[in-house]
Amino acid sequence: MSIAAQIAHDMSLAEHPFVARLSRFMKLSPADLSSLELIVESERLVKKRKDLIVVGYEYRDLCFVKDGYAIRYKLLRSGKRQILNVILPGDIIGFPVSFFDRSIYSVVAVSDLTYTICPLDSYARLCHEQPQFGLALSWLAAHEAAIYAEHIVDLGRRTPIERLAHFLLEIHARLLAVGRAEKTSFDLPFSQEVIADVLGLSVPHLNRMMQQLRVEQLITSRSRLVEFTNMASLQTLAHYQPLDLAPIPMLVKRA
Amino acid sequence: MSIAAQIAHDMSLAEHPFVARLSRFMKLSPADLSSLELIVESERLVKKRKDLIVVGYEYRDLCFVKDGYAIRYKLLRSGKRQILNVILPGDIIGFPVSFFDRSIYSVVAVSDLTYTICPLDSYARLCHEQPQFGLALSWLAAHEAAIYAEHIVDLGRRTPIERLAHFLLEIHARLLAVGRAEKTSFDLPFSQEVIADVLGLSVPHLNRMMQQLRVEQLITSRSRLVEFTNMASLQTLAHYQPLDLAPIPMLVKRA
DNA sequence: TCCACTTATTGATCTGAATTAATAAAAAAC
DNA sequence: GTTTTTTATTAATTCAGATCAATAAGTGGA
Protein backbone atom coordinates (compact mmCIF):
# COMPACT_ATOMS: atom_id res chain seq x y z
CA MET A 1 0.00 0.00 0.00
CA SER A 2 1.40 3.43 -0.91
CA ILE A 3 1.96 5.96 1.87
CA ALA A 4 -0.80 8.15 0.52
CA ALA A 5 -3.17 5.20 0.40
CA GLN A 6 -2.09 4.21 3.89
CA ILE A 7 -2.88 7.67 5.19
CA ALA A 8 -6.24 7.65 3.50
CA HIS A 9 -6.86 4.23 4.99
CA ASP A 10 -5.88 5.42 8.46
CA MET A 11 -8.10 8.41 8.26
CA SER A 12 -10.99 6.34 7.11
CA LEU A 13 -10.56 3.95 10.02
CA ALA A 14 -10.55 6.79 12.54
CA GLU A 15 -13.91 7.84 11.25
CA HIS A 16 -15.14 4.31 10.77
CA PRO A 17 -18.49 3.87 12.54
CA PHE A 18 -17.10 0.79 14.27
CA VAL A 19 -14.52 3.00 15.94
CA ALA A 20 -17.31 5.39 16.89
CA ARG A 21 -19.03 2.55 18.68
CA LEU A 22 -15.91 1.41 20.51
CA SER A 23 -15.26 4.99 21.58
CA ARG A 24 -18.46 5.00 23.55
CA PHE A 25 -17.01 2.72 26.20
CA MET A 26 -13.23 2.80 25.75
CA LYS A 27 -10.56 5.31 24.95
CA LEU A 28 -8.79 4.51 21.71
CA SER A 29 -5.27 5.86 21.42
CA PRO A 30 -3.67 6.46 18.02
CA ALA A 31 -1.60 3.35 18.78
CA ASP A 32 -4.79 1.34 19.27
CA LEU A 33 -6.05 2.56 15.92
CA SER A 34 -2.81 1.50 14.28
CA SER A 35 -3.12 -1.94 15.85
CA LEU A 36 -6.59 -2.28 14.45
CA GLU A 37 -5.35 -0.97 11.16
CA LEU A 38 -2.87 -3.80 10.93
CA ILE A 39 -5.39 -6.57 11.26
CA VAL A 40 -8.16 -5.35 9.00
CA GLU A 41 -7.97 -6.43 5.43
CA SER A 42 -9.52 -5.02 2.32
CA GLU A 43 -12.76 -3.14 2.18
CA ARG A 44 -15.57 -4.71 0.23
CA LEU A 45 -18.77 -3.53 -1.42
CA VAL A 46 -21.81 -5.74 -1.84
CA LYS A 47 -24.98 -4.85 -3.68
CA LYS A 48 -28.46 -4.78 -2.25
CA ARG A 49 -30.05 -8.24 -1.87
CA LYS A 50 -26.67 -9.97 -1.93
CA ASP A 51 -26.08 -12.68 0.69
CA LEU A 52 -23.28 -12.02 3.14
CA ILE A 53 -23.60 -15.15 5.27
CA VAL A 54 -25.51 -18.30 4.40
CA VAL A 55 -26.86 -20.57 7.11
CA GLY A 56 -24.96 -23.83 7.53
CA TYR A 57 -21.66 -22.61 6.12
CA GLU A 58 -18.52 -21.90 8.07
CA TYR A 59 -17.73 -18.23 8.60
CA ARG A 60 -14.70 -16.85 10.42
CA ASP A 61 -14.59 -13.09 9.87
CA LEU A 62 -15.69 -10.16 11.98
CA CYS A 63 -16.64 -7.74 9.23
CA PHE A 64 -17.22 -4.18 10.40
CA VAL A 65 -19.97 -2.39 8.49
CA LYS A 66 -18.91 0.97 7.16
CA ASP A 67 -22.02 1.98 5.31
CA GLY A 68 -25.29 0.36 4.40
CA TYR A 69 -27.76 -2.00 6.01
CA ALA A 70 -28.29 -5.73 6.34
CA ILE A 71 -30.38 -8.23 8.29
CA ARG A 72 -29.70 -11.46 10.15
CA TYR A 73 -32.55 -13.89 9.58
CA LYS A 74 -33.73 -17.44 9.74
CA LEU A 75 -36.21 -19.14 7.44
CA LEU A 76 -38.61 -21.78 8.75
CA ARG A 77 -40.12 -24.75 6.98
CA SER A 78 -43.38 -22.85 6.57
CA GLY A 79 -41.51 -20.24 4.55
CA LYS A 80 -41.87 -17.71 7.33
CA ARG A 81 -38.91 -15.54 8.06
CA GLN A 82 -37.84 -14.16 11.41
CA ILE A 83 -35.29 -11.38 11.43
CA LEU A 84 -33.07 -11.60 14.50
CA ASN A 85 -31.60 -8.16 14.25
CA VAL A 86 -30.89 -5.47 11.74
CA ILE A 87 -27.28 -4.63 10.99
CA LEU A 88 -26.33 -0.95 10.87
CA PRO A 89 -23.07 0.90 10.20
CA GLY A 90 -20.62 0.09 13.00
CA ASP A 91 -22.06 -3.37 13.60
CA ILE A 92 -20.11 -6.59 13.27
CA ILE A 93 -21.55 -8.78 10.54
CA GLY A 94 -19.79 -11.89 11.83
CA PHE A 95 -21.07 -11.75 15.40
CA PRO A 96 -21.99 -14.20 16.78
CA VAL A 97 -21.77 -16.62 13.86
CA SER A 98 -17.97 -16.59 13.65
CA PHE A 99 -17.81 -18.22 17.05
CA PHE A 100 -19.70 -21.31 15.91
CA ASP A 101 -18.75 -24.27 13.78
CA ARG A 102 -21.29 -23.31 11.15
CA SER A 103 -23.46 -20.31 10.71
CA ILE A 104 -26.74 -20.60 12.57
CA TYR A 105 -28.51 -18.03 10.38
CA SER A 106 -28.16 -16.02 7.20
CA VAL A 107 -27.30 -12.41 6.57
CA VAL A 108 -28.39 -10.46 3.52
CA ALA A 109 -27.77 -6.83 2.56
CA VAL A 110 -30.90 -4.73 2.23
CA SER A 111 -29.02 -1.85 0.63
CA ASP A 112 -25.66 -1.51 -1.05
CA LEU A 113 -23.18 -2.02 1.75
CA THR A 114 -19.47 -1.52 2.38
CA TYR A 115 -17.54 -3.28 5.10
CA THR A 116 -14.03 -3.86 6.37
CA ILE A 117 -12.90 -7.46 6.65
CA CYS A 118 -11.21 -8.57 9.85
CA PRO A 119 -10.48 -12.30 10.18
CA LEU A 120 -11.38 -13.66 13.59
CA ASP A 121 -7.93 -15.25 13.89
CA SER A 122 -6.28 -11.88 13.39
CA TYR A 123 -8.53 -10.29 15.96
CA ALA A 124 -7.75 -13.07 18.43
CA ARG A 125 -4.03 -12.51 17.81
CA LEU A 126 -4.53 -8.81 18.46
CA CYS A 127 -6.26 -9.63 21.73
CA HIS A 128 -3.18 -11.48 22.90
CA GLU A 129 -1.09 -8.38 22.22
CA GLN A 130 -3.63 -5.82 23.36
CA PRO A 131 -5.98 -7.47 25.82
CA GLN A 132 -8.37 -4.53 25.91
CA PHE A 133 -9.65 -5.59 22.50
CA GLY A 134 -10.78 -8.90 23.93
CA LEU A 135 -12.75 -7.04 26.53
CA ALA A 136 -14.05 -4.64 23.90
CA LEU A 137 -15.50 -7.56 22.00
CA SER A 138 -17.22 -8.76 25.15
CA TRP A 139 -18.65 -5.29 25.60
CA LEU A 140 -20.03 -5.24 22.10
CA ALA A 141 -21.39 -8.71 22.64
CA ALA A 142 -23.11 -7.59 25.82
CA HIS A 143 -24.69 -4.73 23.88
CA GLU A 144 -25.86 -7.12 21.21
CA ALA A 145 -27.30 -9.47 23.83
CA ALA A 146 -29.16 -6.59 25.45
CA ILE A 147 -30.68 -5.61 22.13
CA TYR A 148 -31.76 -9.19 21.62
CA ALA A 149 -33.23 -9.24 25.10
CA GLU A 150 -35.39 -6.25 24.22
CA HIS A 151 -36.53 -8.00 21.07
CA ILE A 152 -37.56 -10.97 23.16
CA VAL A 153 -39.69 -8.69 25.34
CA ASP A 154 -41.11 -7.09 22.18
CA LEU A 155 -42.14 -10.37 20.67
CA GLY A 156 -43.25 -12.07 23.84
CA ARG A 157 -45.23 -9.50 25.73
CA ARG A 158 -45.51 -6.18 23.92
CA THR A 159 -48.48 -5.25 21.74
CA PRO A 160 -47.86 -4.64 18.04
CA ILE A 161 -47.94 -0.86 18.39
CA GLU A 162 -45.57 -0.98 21.35
CA ARG A 163 -43.22 -3.17 19.37
CA LEU A 164 -43.18 -0.76 16.48
CA ALA A 165 -42.61 2.22 18.76
CA HIS A 166 -39.77 0.38 20.42
CA PHE A 167 -38.24 -0.57 17.11
CA LEU A 168 -38.26 3.00 15.83
CA LEU A 169 -36.69 4.31 19.03
CA GLU A 170 -34.03 1.60 19.06
CA ILE A 171 -33.02 2.13 15.45
CA HIS A 172 -32.91 5.87 16.00
CA ALA A 173 -30.65 5.51 19.02
CA ARG A 174 -28.34 3.12 17.21
CA LEU A 175 -28.11 5.34 14.15
CA LEU A 176 -27.52 8.38 16.34
CA ALA A 177 -24.58 6.63 18.00
CA VAL A 178 -22.81 6.41 14.66
CA GLY A 179 -23.86 9.79 13.35
CA ARG A 180 -26.49 8.52 10.93
CA ALA A 181 -29.54 10.25 12.45
CA GLU A 182 -30.75 13.66 13.56
CA LYS A 183 -31.84 14.44 17.08
CA THR A 184 -35.52 13.64 16.50
CA SER A 185 -35.61 12.21 13.02
CA PHE A 186 -33.94 9.68 10.80
CA ASP A 187 -34.17 7.92 7.51
CA LEU A 188 -35.60 4.47 8.06
CA PRO A 189 -33.63 2.19 5.78
CA PHE A 190 -36.04 -0.78 5.91
CA SER A 191 -39.16 -1.75 4.04
CA GLN A 192 -42.33 -2.60 5.90
CA GLU A 193 -41.80 -6.23 4.98
CA VAL A 194 -38.47 -6.19 6.81
CA ILE A 195 -39.91 -4.43 9.84
CA ALA A 196 -42.80 -6.89 9.96
CA ASP A 197 -40.32 -9.77 10.00
CA VAL A 198 -38.35 -8.13 12.78
CA LEU A 199 -41.45 -7.61 14.89
CA GLY A 200 -43.16 -10.90 14.13
CA LEU A 201 -46.18 -9.21 12.52
CA SER A 202 -47.90 -9.47 9.17
CA VAL A 203 -47.24 -6.67 6.71
CA PRO A 204 -50.85 -5.42 6.67
CA HIS A 205 -50.96 -5.23 10.43
CA LEU A 206 -47.63 -3.45 10.62
CA ASN A 207 -48.91 -0.95 8.10
CA ARG A 208 -51.93 -0.26 10.28
CA MET A 209 -49.78 0.24 13.36
CA MET A 210 -47.62 2.68 11.41
CA GLN A 211 -50.71 4.63 10.54
CA GLN A 212 -51.89 4.57 14.11
CA LEU A 213 -48.64 6.11 15.31
CA ARG A 214 -49.24 8.89 12.80
CA VAL A 215 -52.87 9.32 13.80
CA GLU A 216 -51.86 9.57 17.44
CA GLN A 217 -49.36 12.26 16.49
CA LEU A 218 -46.39 10.36 17.84
CA ILE A 219 -44.54 10.40 14.57
CA THR A 220 -44.80 11.96 11.16
CA SER A 221 -43.41 10.16 8.18
CA ARG A 222 -43.34 10.77 4.50
CA SER A 223 -41.62 8.21 2.37
CA ARG A 224 -39.09 6.70 4.79
CA LEU A 225 -38.18 9.78 6.73
CA VAL A 226 -39.45 9.35 10.28
CA GLU A 227 -39.76 12.27 12.66
CA PHE A 228 -40.59 11.91 16.34
CA THR A 229 -43.17 14.56 17.20
CA ASN A 230 -43.62 13.43 20.77
CA MET A 231 -40.60 11.50 21.90
CA ALA A 232 -41.65 11.27 25.54
CA SER A 233 -45.03 9.71 24.80
CA LEU A 234 -43.46 7.38 22.29
CA GLN A 235 -40.90 6.23 24.84
CA THR A 236 -43.62 5.65 27.40
CA LEU A 237 -45.70 3.69 24.94
CA ALA A 238 -42.69 1.57 24.03
CA HIS A 239 -41.42 1.06 27.60
CA TYR A 240 -38.22 2.38 26.11
CA GLN A 241 -35.09 2.46 28.19
CA PRO A 242 -31.78 3.61 26.69
CA LEU A 243 -28.96 1.06 26.84
CA ASP A 244 -25.92 2.84 28.26
CA LEU A 245 -22.77 0.76 28.28
CA ALA A 246 -20.45 1.32 31.23
CA PRO A 247 -16.81 2.05 30.42
CA ILE A 248 -14.35 -0.85 30.40
CA PRO A 249 -12.57 -0.91 33.77
CA MET A 250 -8.81 -0.98 34.28
CA LEU A 251 -7.63 0.17 30.93
CA VAL A 252 -4.05 0.51 32.03
CA LYS A 253 -1.57 -0.35 29.33
CA ARG A 254 1.18 -2.74 30.23
CA ALA A 255 4.67 -1.56 29.40
CA MET B 1 -7.97 -19.21 54.00
CA SER B 2 -6.33 -22.31 55.47
CA ILE B 3 -4.36 -24.56 53.18
CA ALA B 4 -6.89 -27.33 53.60
CA ALA B 5 -9.72 -24.95 52.74
CA GLN B 6 -7.70 -23.64 49.80
CA ILE B 7 -7.30 -27.13 48.45
CA ALA B 8 -10.97 -27.87 48.87
CA HIS B 9 -11.71 -24.60 47.10
CA ASP B 10 -9.36 -25.48 44.24
CA MET B 11 -10.92 -28.84 43.79
CA SER B 12 -14.38 -27.39 43.77
CA LEU B 13 -13.41 -24.87 41.09
CA ALA B 14 -12.05 -27.59 38.83
CA GLU B 15 -15.42 -29.27 38.89
CA HIS B 16 -17.34 -26.02 38.81
CA PRO B 17 -19.90 -26.13 35.98
CA PHE B 18 -18.57 -22.80 34.74
CA VAL B 19 -15.24 -24.48 34.13
CA ALA B 20 -17.08 -27.28 32.35
CA ARG B 21 -18.57 -24.72 29.99
CA LEU B 22 -15.26 -23.01 29.30
CA SER B 23 -13.66 -26.38 28.63
CA ARG B 24 -15.96 -26.89 25.68
CA PHE B 25 -14.10 -24.31 23.63
CA MET B 26 -10.75 -23.75 25.33
CA LYS B 27 -8.11 -25.78 27.08
CA LEU B 28 -7.71 -24.78 30.71
CA SER B 29 -4.33 -25.50 32.22
CA PRO B 30 -3.91 -25.91 36.00
CA ALA B 31 -2.27 -22.47 35.87
CA ASP B 32 -5.39 -21.04 34.28
CA LEU B 33 -7.50 -22.56 37.02
CA SER B 34 -5.25 -21.00 39.63
CA SER B 35 -5.60 -17.62 37.94
CA LEU B 36 -9.35 -17.94 38.06
CA GLU B 37 -9.11 -19.10 41.62
CA LEU B 38 -7.37 -15.90 42.58
CA ILE B 39 -10.08 -13.61 41.34
CA VAL B 40 -13.19 -15.37 42.57
CA GLU B 41 -14.41 -14.39 45.97
CA SER B 42 -16.66 -16.16 48.38
CA GLU B 43 -19.36 -18.57 47.48
CA ARG B 44 -22.91 -17.58 48.29
CA LEU B 45 -26.21 -19.35 48.77
CA VAL B 46 -29.56 -17.74 48.08
CA LYS B 47 -32.94 -19.22 48.75
CA LYS B 48 -35.68 -19.82 46.21
CA ARG B 49 -37.59 -16.68 45.23
CA LYS B 50 -34.81 -14.41 46.37
CA ASP B 51 -33.84 -11.55 44.04
CA LEU B 52 -30.30 -11.63 42.72
CA ILE B 53 -30.44 -8.54 40.51
CA VAL B 54 -33.04 -5.79 40.58
CA VAL B 55 -33.75 -3.71 37.51
CA GLY B 56 -32.41 -0.16 37.66
CA TYR B 57 -29.64 -0.83 40.14
CA GLU B 58 -25.96 -0.91 39.41
CA TYR B 59 -24.41 -4.37 39.30
CA ARG B 60 -20.76 -5.16 38.66
CA ASP B 61 -20.18 -8.84 39.33
CA LEU B 62 -19.95 -11.85 37.08
CA CYS B 63 -21.37 -14.49 39.38
CA PHE B 64 -20.88 -18.05 38.19
CA VAL B 65 -23.75 -20.37 39.09
CA LYS B 66 -22.63 -23.53 40.80
CA ASP B 67 -25.97 -25.12 41.52
CA GLY B 68 -29.57 -24.13 41.20
CA TYR B 69 -31.72 -22.18 38.78
CA ALA B 70 -32.75 -18.60 38.17
CA ILE B 71 -34.46 -16.44 35.56
CA ARG B 72 -33.75 -13.07 33.94
CA TYR B 73 -36.99 -11.21 33.45
CA LYS B 74 -38.65 -7.90 32.80
CA LEU B 75 -42.03 -6.71 34.06
CA LEU B 76 -44.24 -4.49 31.94
CA ARG B 77 -46.77 -1.88 32.98
CA SER B 78 -49.56 -4.33 32.32
CA GLY B 79 -48.08 -6.64 34.93
CA LYS B 80 -47.04 -9.11 32.28
CA ARG B 81 -43.67 -10.72 32.68
CA GLN B 82 -41.30 -11.78 29.94
CA ILE B 83 -38.48 -14.07 30.86
CA LEU B 84 -35.42 -13.38 28.71
CA ASN B 85 -33.56 -16.53 29.56
CA VAL B 86 -33.28 -19.13 32.23
CA ILE B 87 -30.03 -19.36 34.18
CA LEU B 88 -28.57 -22.81 34.73
CA PRO B 89 -25.45 -24.09 36.53
CA GLY B 90 -22.39 -22.77 34.71
CA ASP B 91 -24.11 -19.60 33.55
CA ILE B 92 -22.99 -16.10 34.44
CA ILE B 93 -25.63 -14.29 36.45
CA GLY B 94 -24.11 -10.86 35.75
CA PHE B 95 -24.05 -11.10 31.97
CA PRO B 96 -24.86 -8.83 30.27
CA VAL B 97 -26.07 -6.49 33.02
CA SER B 98 -22.63 -5.88 34.50
CA PHE B 99 -21.60 -4.12 31.31
CA PHE B 100 -24.27 -1.46 31.65
CA ASP B 101 -24.64 1.55 33.90
CA ARG B 102 -27.70 0.08 35.52
CA SER B 103 -29.33 -3.27 35.28
CA ILE B 104 -31.77 -3.49 32.43
CA TYR B 105 -33.71 -6.39 33.94
CA SER B 106 -34.12 -8.41 37.11
CA VAL B 107 -32.91 -11.83 38.11
CA VAL B 108 -34.61 -14.05 40.66
CA ALA B 109 -33.75 -17.54 41.87
CA VAL B 110 -36.38 -20.17 41.18
CA SER B 111 -34.69 -22.72 43.41
CA ASP B 112 -32.10 -22.54 46.13
CA LEU B 113 -28.94 -21.52 44.35
CA THR B 114 -25.21 -21.32 45.03
CA TYR B 115 -22.82 -19.17 43.08
CA THR B 116 -19.25 -17.95 43.08
CA ILE B 117 -18.74 -14.21 43.10
CA CYS B 118 -16.29 -12.71 40.63
CA PRO B 119 -16.13 -8.90 40.46
CA LEU B 120 -16.06 -7.60 36.90
CA ASP B 121 -13.05 -5.43 37.75
CA SER B 122 -11.10 -8.46 38.88
CA TYR B 123 -12.03 -10.35 35.75
CA ALA B 124 -10.95 -7.41 33.61
CA ARG B 125 -7.64 -7.32 35.45
CA LEU B 126 -7.22 -11.03 34.80
CA CYS B 127 -7.85 -10.42 31.10
CA HIS B 128 -4.94 -8.02 30.99
CA GLU B 129 -2.70 -10.70 32.44
CA GLN B 130 -4.20 -13.65 30.60
CA PRO B 131 -5.84 -12.36 27.43
CA GLN B 132 -7.48 -15.68 26.63
CA PHE B 133 -10.02 -14.97 29.35
CA GLY B 134 -11.17 -11.87 27.52
CA LEU B 135 -11.77 -13.98 24.47
CA ALA B 136 -13.45 -16.64 26.57
CA LEU B 137 -15.93 -14.08 27.78
CA SER B 138 -16.66 -13.10 24.19
CA TRP B 139 -17.22 -16.74 23.38
CA LEU B 140 -19.68 -17.15 26.21
CA ALA B 141 -21.35 -13.95 25.12
CA ALA B 142 -21.67 -15.26 21.58
CA HIS B 143 -23.28 -18.40 22.95
CA GLU B 144 -25.69 -16.33 25.00
CA ALA B 145 -26.55 -14.19 21.98
CA ALA B 146 -27.21 -17.30 19.90
CA ILE B 147 -29.57 -18.64 22.55
CA TYR B 148 -31.37 -15.30 22.56
CA ALA B 149 -31.56 -15.40 18.79
CA GLU B 150 -33.33 -18.74 18.96
CA HIS B 151 -35.77 -17.32 21.48
CA ILE B 152 -36.52 -14.51 19.06
CA VAL B 153 -37.35 -17.05 16.37
CA ASP B 154 -39.47 -18.97 18.88
CA LEU B 155 -41.50 -15.96 19.87
CA GLY B 156 -41.76 -14.38 16.47
CA ARG B 157 -42.50 -17.21 14.09
CA ARG B 158 -42.80 -20.57 15.78
CA THR B 159 -46.11 -22.05 16.84
CA PRO B 160 -46.70 -22.67 20.54
CA ILE B 161 -46.00 -26.37 20.31
CA GLU B 162 -42.83 -25.77 18.33
CA ARG B 163 -41.68 -23.28 20.94
CA LEU B 164 -42.21 -25.73 23.73
CA ALA B 165 -40.40 -28.50 21.86
CA HIS B 166 -37.52 -26.14 21.22
CA PHE B 167 -37.40 -25.05 24.82
CA LEU B 168 -37.23 -28.60 26.12
CA LEU B 169 -34.47 -29.52 23.70
CA GLU B 170 -32.46 -26.39 24.49
CA ILE B 171 -32.66 -26.85 28.24
CA HIS B 172 -31.74 -30.50 27.87
CA ALA B 173 -28.68 -29.65 25.79
CA ARG B 174 -27.56 -26.96 28.20
CA LEU B 175 -28.00 -29.21 31.22
CA LEU B 176 -26.19 -32.03 29.45
CA ALA B 177 -23.21 -29.73 28.85
CA VAL B 178 -22.74 -29.31 32.59
CA GLY B 179 -23.55 -32.88 33.55
CA ARG B 180 -27.02 -32.18 34.87
CA ALA B 181 -29.03 -34.37 32.47
CA GLU B 182 -29.19 -37.88 31.09
CA LYS B 183 -28.87 -38.71 27.42
CA THR B 184 -32.60 -38.60 26.69
CA SER B 185 -34.12 -37.32 29.90
CA PHE B 186 -33.78 -34.61 32.49
CA ASP B 187 -35.41 -33.03 35.45
CA LEU B 188 -37.15 -29.85 34.36
CA PRO B 189 -36.49 -27.33 37.11
CA PHE B 190 -39.20 -24.85 36.09
CA SER B 191 -42.90 -24.49 36.76
CA GLN B 192 -45.35 -24.14 33.89
CA GLU B 193 -45.80 -20.50 34.86
CA VAL B 194 -42.09 -19.90 34.28
CA ILE B 195 -42.07 -21.78 30.99
CA ALA B 196 -45.12 -19.86 29.80
CA ASP B 197 -43.33 -16.60 30.55
CA VAL B 198 -40.28 -17.77 28.65
CA LEU B 199 -42.33 -18.76 25.63
CA GLY B 200 -44.74 -15.83 25.64
CA LEU B 201 -47.77 -18.06 26.20
CA SER B 202 -50.54 -18.22 28.76
CA VAL B 203 -50.32 -20.95 31.36
CA PRO B 204 -53.45 -22.80 30.19
CA HIS B 205 -52.22 -22.86 26.63
CA LEU B 206 -48.78 -24.04 27.63
CA ASN B 207 -50.40 -26.80 29.63
CA ARG B 208 -52.32 -27.95 26.55
CA MET B 209 -49.17 -27.96 24.44
CA MET B 210 -47.44 -30.06 27.07
CA GLN B 211 -50.26 -32.55 26.88
CA GLN B 212 -50.15 -32.56 23.12
CA LEU B 213 -46.46 -33.47 23.14
CA ARG B 214 -47.39 -36.40 25.36
CA VAL B 215 -50.34 -37.42 23.21
CA GLU B 216 -48.12 -37.35 20.15
CA GLN B 217 -45.67 -39.61 21.96
CA LEU B 218 -42.78 -37.18 21.65
CA ILE B 219 -42.17 -37.03 25.37
CA THR B 220 -43.30 -38.72 28.52
CA SER B 221 -43.32 -36.79 31.75
CA ARG B 222 -44.42 -37.50 35.25
CA SER B 223 -43.97 -34.77 37.77
CA ARG B 224 -41.10 -32.77 36.32
CA LEU B 225 -39.05 -35.58 34.88
CA VAL B 226 -39.08 -35.24 31.10
CA GLU B 227 -38.08 -38.10 28.84
CA PHE B 228 -37.66 -37.77 25.09
CA THR B 229 -39.30 -40.79 23.48
CA ASN B 230 -38.70 -39.64 19.94
CA MET B 231 -35.85 -37.18 19.87
CA ALA B 232 -35.63 -37.03 16.07
CA SER B 233 -39.27 -36.09 15.57
CA LEU B 234 -39.10 -33.61 18.39
CA GLN B 235 -36.06 -31.94 16.83
CA THR B 236 -37.80 -31.77 13.49
CA LEU B 237 -40.90 -30.28 15.03
CA ALA B 238 -38.79 -27.69 16.86
CA HIS B 239 -36.49 -26.87 13.93
CA TYR B 240 -33.81 -27.66 16.46
CA GLN B 241 -30.19 -27.13 15.57
CA PRO B 242 -27.44 -27.73 18.13
CA LEU B 243 -25.22 -24.75 18.88
CA ASP B 244 -21.63 -25.93 18.64
CA LEU B 245 -19.07 -23.34 19.64
CA ALA B 246 -15.83 -23.39 17.67
CA PRO B 247 -12.61 -23.50 19.70
CA ILE B 248 -10.84 -20.22 20.49
CA PRO B 249 -8.06 -19.75 17.94
CA MET B 250 -4.42 -18.99 18.78
CA LEU B 251 -4.30 -20.04 22.37
CA VAL B 252 -0.54 -19.69 22.58
CA LYS B 253 0.65 -18.44 25.91
CA ARG B 254 3.05 -15.57 25.88
CA ALA B 255 6.23 -16.11 27.82
C1' DT C 1 -40.42 7.39 -21.13
C1' DC C 2 -42.31 3.24 -20.45
C1' DC C 3 -42.36 -1.24 -18.35
C1' DA C 4 -41.45 -4.47 -14.70
C1' DC C 5 -40.99 -5.00 -10.13
C1' DT C 6 -41.12 -3.78 -5.49
C1' DT C 7 -43.38 -1.62 -1.75
C1' DA C 8 -47.40 0.37 0.57
C1' DT C 9 -52.25 0.45 1.52
C1' DT C 10 -57.01 -1.12 2.24
C1' DG C 11 -60.81 -4.42 3.26
C1' DA C 12 -63.24 -8.96 4.63
C1' DT C 13 -62.98 -13.21 6.88
C1' DC C 14 -61.60 -16.47 10.26
C1' DT C 15 -58.83 -18.81 13.62
C1' DG C 16 -55.58 -19.44 17.36
C1' DA C 17 -54.54 -18.28 21.68
C1' DA C 18 -55.65 -14.95 25.52
C1' DT C 19 -58.71 -14.32 29.19
C1' DT C 20 -61.37 -15.64 32.93
C1' DA C 21 -62.76 -18.74 36.14
C1' DA C 22 -63.06 -22.86 38.63
C1' DT C 23 -61.15 -27.15 40.32
C1' DA C 24 -57.77 -30.71 41.28
C1' DA C 25 -53.41 -32.18 42.65
C1' DA C 26 -49.06 -31.63 44.70
C1' DA C 27 -45.67 -29.53 47.71
C1' DA C 28 -44.33 -26.91 51.48
C1' DA C 29 -45.05 -25.14 55.95
C1' DC C 30 -46.35 -25.69 60.42
C1' DG D 1 -50.51 -35.13 59.71
C1' DT D 2 -53.10 -31.31 58.68
C1' DT D 3 -53.34 -26.77 56.75
C1' DT D 4 -51.78 -23.47 53.45
C1' DT D 5 -49.76 -22.33 49.36
C1' DT D 6 -48.27 -23.30 45.02
C1' DT D 7 -48.76 -25.64 40.76
C1' DA D 8 -51.34 -28.12 37.25
C1' DT D 9 -55.52 -29.01 34.68
C1' DT D 10 -59.95 -28.17 32.36
C1' DA D 11 -63.69 -25.45 30.10
C1' DA D 12 -66.26 -21.34 27.85
C1' DT D 13 -65.86 -16.95 25.78
C1' DT D 14 -63.78 -13.39 23.19
C1' DC D 15 -60.99 -10.80 20.15
C1' DA D 16 -56.49 -9.48 18.20
C1' DG D 17 -54.11 -10.20 14.47
C1' DA D 18 -53.22 -13.61 10.57
C1' DT D 19 -54.63 -14.68 6.09
C1' DC D 20 -56.18 -13.81 1.68
C1' DA D 21 -57.06 -10.75 -1.92
C1' DA D 22 -56.87 -6.71 -4.51
C1' DT D 23 -55.23 -2.19 -5.68
C1' DA D 24 -52.33 1.87 -5.58
C1' DA D 25 -48.13 4.08 -5.44
C1' DG D 26 -43.19 4.13 -5.94
C1' DT D 27 -38.71 2.96 -7.97
C1' DG D 28 -35.31 1.47 -10.99
C1' DG D 29 -33.77 -0.27 -15.31
C1' DA D 30 -33.63 -0.51 -20.31
Written account of the structure:
The structure is a homodimer of 255-residue chains. The model of chain A has no long low-confidence stretch (mean pLDDT 92). Chain A starts with a helix and ends in a 17-residue tail after the last helix. Chain A has a 4-stranded antiparallel sheet with strand order 2-6-4-5. A 3-stranded antiparallel sheet of chain A has the order 1-7-3, with no helix packed on it. In chain A, strands 8-10-9 form a 3-stranded antiparallel sheet. In chain A, α6 packs across α8 and α6 packs across α9. Chain A is of the alpha+beta class and 255 residues long. Chain A has 9 helices and 10 strands. The interface between A and B is large, with 63 and 63 residues. The structure holds a DNA duplex (30 and 30 nucleotides).
Annotation keywords:
homodimer; alpha+beta; four-stranded antiparallel beta sheet; three-stranded antiparallel beta sheet; 17% strand
Summed up:
With 255 residues, chain A is an alpha+beta fold. Chain A has helices at residues 3-14, 17-23, 30-39, 120-129, 132-157, 160-177, 192-199, 203-215, 231-238; strands at 43-46, 51-53, 64-67, 70-75, 81-87, 106-109, 113-116, 185-187, 219-222, 225-228.
Largest interface: A-B, 63 and 63 residues
**Uncertain regions of chain A: pLDDT < 50 for 5+ in a row?**
none
Report strand % of chain A: 15-25%
Distance separating the two termini of chain A: 30 Å
Number of helices, where a helix is a run of at least 4 consecutive DSSP H or I residues of chain A: 9
Major beta sheet, strand line-up of chain A: 2-6-4-5
Largest sheet of chain A: 4 strands, antiparallel
Let me know the average pLDDT of chain A: 92
Quaternary assembly: homodimer
C-alpha geometry of chain A: globular
Number of strands of chain A: 10
Q: N-to-C SSE series of chain A?
A: HHHEEEEEEEHHHEHHEEH
Radius of gyration of chain A: 19 Å
Helix and strand composition category of chain A: alpha+beta
Q: Helical content of chain A, roughly?
A: 40-55%
